[in-house]
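One such given next:
>
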Amino acid sequence: MKTEEGTIVSVEEDGIVEIKVGRHTDCIACGACSGAENIVIKAMNPIGAKVGQHVKFEVREVNIVIGAFVCFVMPLLVAALGAFAGYWYSNSQGIDYVQNAIIGGIVGFLIGAVGVKLFDRSLTNDVNAKPKVTEICELPTH
């Protein structure tokens, strides 16, 4: 588990909180956020933290790895498989293989993009995949 810190900006009815987290090396390396200084994540709140409190939360690292694979690698693999399928189909029918390989790659990429969206929806409903608030931190006094 990876532990991060942030400030709660809102509490929803279903026990989910939104936490504003400063960017760190993982976020900078990913580059998926469009340069925002802070990102906001949703997390489970089993300890009942309130808006404005500084909290620690845990993120399962396996979710980060799986998410990165599904978002970045899987669509490319499916596109490659689509291109190969288009090439194979063209050779078996004796027609131009370049055009069908390109079409197969595009269709494969679109299928991969739909797969990413379905994966995202499945994680939205999975309580175990969400980060979890573990501790309320005392802000240091100056």
